[in-house]
Amino acid sequence: MNDESPSGVDKRPDAVPAGGTVAPQWLTPTPETPPPPATGDTPPIPRDGGFAHSQGFARNYVPPPSHAPPPGYPPVAPGAAGYVHPGYGAPQAYAPPPGYAAAPPGYPPYGTPGAYAPPIHVNPPTRLTYDGKVGELYLVYLRSLLLTLVTLGVYRFWGRTRVRRYLWSHFQAFGDRFEYRGRGIELFLGFLAGLGFLMMIAGALLGLLWLFARESLLQEVDADDVTTWLLLLAGYPLLAVGRYAGLRYKLTRTRWRGIRSGLDGSAWKFGGISVGLGLVNGMSGQLMTPVLDVILARYRLQNLTFGTVKFGFAGQAGDIYGRFIGFYFLNILAWIVLIGIVAAAVGGLSGVIDRLGGWETLSEKITHPTPLVIVIMFLVILVIYSLIGVVILPLRCWYQAYLLRYLISRTWFGRMQFVSGVTTGQMWGFIVLNWIILVFTLGVGWPWVLHRTARLIADQLWIYGEIDAPAVAQALGQGPAIGEGLLDLFDTGIV
Amino acid sequence: MTQSATALPTHARFYDGVRPIAHLVTIQATPAELVASTTEGQVVVRWPTAEIEVASDAEHEPHALLVCARQPGTRLAIEDDVLRQSLAELGGNLKRAANRRPRIAPALGGVAAALAVTVGLMVFAAEKLPNVVAPYVPYVWQRSLGDSVVTAMTGDMRKCTNAEGQEALQKLIDRLQQVSSYERRIDVTVVQNKIVNAFAVPGGRLIVFSGLIEKAAGPEEVAGVIAHEIGHVVHHHSMKGLLRAYGFDMLIKLVTGGYSSDVTTLGGAGGVLLALRHSRDAEREADRTALELMDRVGMRADGLSTFFGKLLELQNKPPPGDKGKAPGDSATKPRDAAEEAGILSTHPPTRERLEATQRPPTGAPPMTAREWQALQAVCR
């Protein structure tokens, strides 16, 4: 399945064209002059009160001995030993300030900007830019929705592909746009494959039950219930597998500067880790959440590739446990406060209810609603949800934003490093506000939510350093031929 | 077609497909070939125009991506609209290089209007189509559906199979069915349960709970209820309800994309209210048909209204454990559960039904005294 040939001619980079010429290799020398530094707006200032700086990016920050980099961090790309970041001097010997440990043997000394990491405090960071317009996105989305309705749902795979093409191609990094080269038919075939797979599992499980527990099955339980439960039991682990496979599909269809991205690793292994740790976490009263978060992020990020080069990730759960413990206990406190508020409100309202004629009149009114009663019921539900949104969820966002900043700041690609300054408020806007938009617009707010999310990514992801182009080559192959089968069955996101 | 080279000194980006490097190039295109050269004058692309393909999607992507099988993996990214337009004028595959993004406001308006019309039509279809389709659903499917409902609801209850009683009931049903527009035989299952109820399932099957027979004052009341259930069968109400629920479910999933369970829940609540409204209409229709059928046979038809009276009475009788406080303000108005449930009720207010089904106590008895005795003993 070729991703870029409408006529179906095989144009894979590793395929030798019949009678044609091979791509000229002289085209890819080391650039003699570095590209001009990005001009334009002023570098963003971290809006999180310096969290990113505390992660090792401040001007004069030298990590304490306890934060010595783990093995493999920072990576030394083979063949890039002599690389000097444009604009910076050659690596030089560096003596750590007194009281700090030297770098482990075999690793470049830390604290030397030119030695192994781009001196991010000198160069302004590059940002992704997103120049999509919400009106255009609405047009793409509504047109897809219309065709989906007319075709009774079959078109949704093609519609999703269109939305992705729009989103991807409006993201730019270093002046070059991203491409999404997936095709609707791949998603459709993936869906069929996933459906077939699920039916096979359900059939096998039902067959086993039929063989070994026929009598009790017939007498005691309803066949429909059994099927539902089996699908749930099989579905929970498969959801994680599907997520990973879906991520792989999306990444293999993503190109930047003509080079495709990818995801190594096994979706089944990811699903196994995710389910196993999820169970352990559940048994430990959610106290292992940071471990789970970091391990899952590590599996994804360390398998993430661009061309031939993998991304790196060096996060450790220990680093974020402090914030998590704070969140954990504040969360319990917040629930107690919320229950107190609700109890007080019900107590205060009981007088009002009695004056209105007691609970019976109230239930009479609810079942024979006048428009006013409907509005009041709506407001009551709104108040309850707002209470949860105001008391409980900001705490979760406080942790989630911290986690995201941490994960991003511990990720690198070659000599590029990433920083995000996403704040608790922005995370709240991402999680809570987007949910509110979706519910209140009955789903029609999707393009708006996507636009908001794209803007957030563009605003809050900063790239330090530049891509080491000679070290990266095109990935081999085309990735999986069909896409997202299992994911589509359980989790039908539009993107 | 002139052979004069149209020099287009506009920049494009060339990706060699091997390294992530963007080469700034100028493009020169003729109907014969397209040449891209770097600022140093190095020619990086010399493609026959006819072999060039446009990999990008002009409606969604802001750039045109040109690819050619001569140099696999490479691409030329062009954002300049003037250059894209002049390339498109070269014809062939390159026509797709032009920027084809529609003007937003009119296009959006058109799509939104078409969407509104489509959703409207589909809601209308989901509401009306089941009435047309339900009678034509193959009988075998209806039957197996009905069987699964029966197993689900009465699987753990004892079936009453006293032959004489069963026969008496079946005879009553056959008489009513023969004068109706329903052409297949309707069978009945009596199960032992204290609840006063009977219902019709798809495929022409009735389930009667023995509580109904025990509580009925006479065969007229049983006949009234049976006639009502036959009314449901005649109008395929259960099949219509199922089809409608399924249709609305599908529609909500399609419109919301099925990606937010909350959105689906909200939409689903609307669907349930709609289904309940249809259910209340169906009850009225079944009541009317029941009276019609009994009149046609010449049967005494006051049983249905007296049975409704009995239902009201049952609801107003204080439960054994009640501590004196009568439910509702029973002094002025007797309690009516169906009316209290309002839009959440599957049935219309019982009082309304009672008044609508009033009939004089004249006509032939629905069954002989002997048959009635046998029916009362059906569970023994």
Give descriptors for this structure.
heterodimer; A: 495 residues; alpha+beta; globular; disordered N terminus; disordered C terminus; B: 380 residues; PH-domain like; 4-stranded mixed sheet; 15% strand; rod-shaped
Please provide a written account of the structure:
The complex is a heterodimer of chains A (495) and B (380). Chain A is an alpha+beta fold and 495 residues long. Chain A has a domain of 174 residues. Chain A contains 15 helices and eleven strands. An eleven-stranded antiparallel β-sheet of chain A has the order 1-11-10-9-8-7-6-5-4-3-2. In chain A, helix 4 crosses helix 5. The radius of gyration of chain A is 27 Å and the shape is globular. In chain A, 33% of the residues are buried. The N terminus and C terminus of chain A are likely disordered. Chain B is α+β, with helices and mostly antiparallel strands and 380 residues long. Chain B folds into two domains: 92 residues, PH-domain like (Roll), CATH 2.30.29; 227 residues, no CATH class. In chain B, 48% of the residues lie in helices and 15% in strands. In chain B, the strands form two sheets. In chain B, strands 4-3-2-1-7-6-5 form a seven-stranded antiparallel β-sheet, covered by helices on one side. A four-stranded mixed β-sheet of chain B has the order 8-9-11-10. In chain B, helix 6 crosses helix 9. In chain B, 38% of the residues are buried. The chains are: A alpha+beta (495), B alpha+beta (380). At the A-B interface, helix 3, helix 4, strand 4, helix 11 and helix 13 of A face helix 2, helix 3, helix 7 and helix 8 of B.
Low-confidence stretches of chain A: 1-6, 8-32, 34-70, 73-97, 106-122, 490-495
Order of helices and strands of chain A: HHEEHHEEHHHEEHHEEHHHEEHHEH
Q: Roughly what percent helix of chain A? A: 40-55%
What structural class results from the helix and strand content of chain A?
alpha+beta
Strand content of chain B: 15-25%
- Major β-sheet profile of chain A: 11 strands, antiparallel
What string gives the helices and strands of chain B in order? EEEEEEEHHHEHEEEHHHHHHHH
Oligomer: heterodimer
Biggest chain pair interface: A-B, 78 and 68 residues
Determine the N-to-C terminus distance of chain A: 21 Å
The strands making up the biggest β-sheet of chain A line up spatially as: 1-11-10-9-8-7-6-5-4-3-2
Number of helices of chain A: 15
Radius of gyration of chain A from CA coordinates: 27 Å
Total number of strands of chain A: 11
What's the N-to-C terminus distance of chain B?
Answer: 99 Å
